[in-house]
């Protein structure tokens, strides 16, 4: 899709300004029902588009992403633009700088249409936890788009953006991509700089693209990846053009299927996954059953490590240096502090009114697990098991090139269906969290549709690759897609 639009721009079939206006028109028409956007950046977008049109008019060469409209998840800083992380505590925060991934997109000439809705501070699997209201799935407005990058996935699926940036801490790019029928890529930890992303769980967070096609994901990754001195966890990996690895062949590639993984799926979802396995066999890949003996501990490990890091990262939002300051019990924010108000009351009320229920839940879980007497029993033990899970993956990748799993246990569920039971909601991440725990790259690609209540719904499958092997990951995903 990006290449087609690029060719139209250089052939002067359309202008970048007209293209941006076309997407703003789509947003105006559809987004009142979907609510994928929290903020529109029309002035910025049109300014960027005019610069591209000027280059074309002067006969200058433009890059593949120049003039191509997209959206950025609202926990990524865009200079001069409201950045809330879908939380009331950051309701009036204007980012003073660009996240590195955003800066690289700007340098590449991409057009930023706005900021996408999400679960508050990226904590959720349905985008029902946004302080500003839920995003709806464009495929079925009665169903969730997934989360926490639900707004990003919905915008791409609804034709309100060509590309989107999301963040993925336990599946927050891949799960909404699966629910909305688009492509979602979580790169290797360290491949894309996290600078300028509002941190949730720093050892798990990663920025990546959501697009209509695998080729488009490769194009965006080529721009946003690479070493960054502003992020100490950024890997020393040179920037490269990932589209060069999309050969359209998986002949001879070894793909591992985890023993017992598909057994937990419903009948329709299992049949969909088995079709994917058969397709790869037909395409010439060698399918091999593998075992990951410690992967059964992934969910408890993730839901100890993640809340602990959440507790640490969100401690800064105290109503003094960071975030809104609540000064009375009517949720009114004033410009002054009453003389009889204590500091601890300011802390408590700012968080009480500024943070949502799910965010508070995870902060409390993490604070408890890190508290005196519990650190060794919970956090330290979880980190040790994390190492065991990583060793399972290292051993598996000695035998296979890629690991194939479902992305989610089922297609998109209805609003309210899982929100009453946090544990049931957390189980949505069962197939995706392992990639974050061990840091490998993973991608969700639309598989065969699954029938639910008489309606066909998208469900993705997931490929995981060795650390820093996005080349083979994208090659295998693209091969399936074009065949």
- Biggest sheet layout: 11 strands, mixed
Strand content: 5-15%
- The main sheet orders its strands as 1-3-2-4-6-5-10-13-9-7-8
Element order: H for helix, E for strand: HHEHEHEHEHEEHEHEHHHHEHHEEEEH
In the CATH hierarchy, what is the superfamily of the domain at 2-245? Amidase signature (AS) domain
Mean pLDDT metric:
94
From the alpha carbons, calculate the radius of gyration and give it in angstroms: 22 Å
What is the helix content?
Answer: 25-40%
Strand segment tally: 13
Tally the helices: what do you get?
Answer: 15
Shape: globular
CATH topology of the domain at 2-245: Amidase signature (AS) enzymes
Could you say what the CATH architecture of the domain at 2-245 is? Answer: Alpha-Beta Complex
Distance between the termini: 17 Å
CATH class of the domain at 2-245: Alpha Beta
Describe the structure.
- This protein is of the alpha/beta class and 483 residues long.
- It has a domain at 2-245: Amidase signature (AS) enzymes (Alpha-Beta Complex).
- It is 38% helix and 13% strand.
- It is built from 15 helices and 13 strands.
- Strand 2 (69-73), helix 4 (100-107) and strand 3 (111-116) form a beta-alpha-beta unit.
- Helix 2 (16-34) packs antiparallel against helix 3, helix 9 packs across helix 11 and helix 9 (298-313) crosses helix 12.
- The model has no long low-confidence stretch (mean pLDDT 94).
């Amino acid at each position: 899709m990006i290449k087609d639009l690029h060719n139209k721009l250089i052939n002067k079939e359309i202008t970048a300004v007209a293209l941006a206006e076309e997407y703003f028109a789509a947003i105006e028409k559809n987004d009142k029902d979907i609510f994928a956007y929290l903020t529109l950046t029309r002035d910025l977008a049109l300014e960027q588009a005019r610069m591209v049109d000027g280059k074309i008019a002067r006969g200058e060469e433009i890059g593949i992403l120049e003039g191509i409209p997209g959206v950025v998840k609202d926990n990524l800083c865009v200079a001069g633009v409201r950045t809330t992380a879908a939380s009331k505590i950051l309701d009036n925060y204007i980012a003073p700088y660009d996240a590195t991934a955003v800066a690289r997109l700007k340098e590449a000439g991409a057009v930023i249409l706005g900021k996408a809705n999400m679960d508050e501070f990226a904590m959720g699997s349905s985008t029902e936890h946004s302080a500003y209201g839920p995003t709806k799935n464009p495929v079925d407005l009665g169903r969730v788009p997934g989360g926490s990058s639900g707004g990003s996935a919905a915008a791409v699926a609804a034709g309100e953006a060509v590309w989107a940036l999301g963040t993925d801490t336990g599946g927050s790019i891949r799960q909404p991509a699966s629910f909305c029928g688009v492509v979602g890529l979580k790169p290797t930890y360290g491949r894309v700089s996290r600078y300028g992303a509002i941190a949730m769980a720093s050892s798990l967070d990663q920025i990546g693209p959501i697009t209509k096609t695998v080729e488009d994901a490769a194009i965006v990754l080529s721009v946003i990846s690479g070493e960054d001195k502003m992020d100490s966890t950024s890997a020393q990996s040179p920037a490269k053009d990932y589209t060069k690895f999309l050969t359209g062949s998986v002949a001879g590639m070894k793909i591992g299927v985890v023993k017992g993984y598909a057994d937990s799926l419903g009948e329709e979802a299992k049949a969909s996954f088995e079709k994917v396995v058969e397709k790869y066999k037909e395409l010439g890949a060698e399918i091999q059953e593998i075992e990951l003996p410690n992967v059964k501990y992934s969910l408890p490990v993730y839901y100890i490590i993640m809340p602990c890091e959440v507790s640490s990262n969100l401690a800064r939002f105290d109503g003094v240096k960071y975030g809104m300051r609540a000064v009375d019990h009517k949720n009114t924010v004033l410009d002054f502090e009453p003389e009889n108000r204590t500091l601890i009351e300011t802390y408590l009320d700012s968080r009480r009114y500024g943070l949502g229920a799910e965010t508070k839940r995870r902060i409390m879980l993490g604070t408890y697990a890190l508290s005196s007497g519990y650190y060794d029993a919970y956090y330290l033990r979880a980190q040790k098991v994390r190492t065991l899970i990583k060793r399972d993956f290292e051993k598996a990748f000695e035998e296979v090139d890629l690991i194939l799993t479902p992305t989610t246990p089922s297609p998109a569920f209805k609003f309210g269906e899982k929100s009453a039971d946090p544990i049931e909601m957390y189980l949505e991440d069962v197939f995706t969290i392992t990639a974050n725990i061990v840091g490998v790259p993973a991608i969700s690609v639309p598989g065969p549709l699954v029938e639910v209540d008489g309606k066909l719904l998208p469900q993705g499958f997931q490929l995981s690759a060795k650390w820093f092997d996005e080349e083979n990951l994208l090659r295998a995903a693209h091969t399936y897609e074009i065949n």
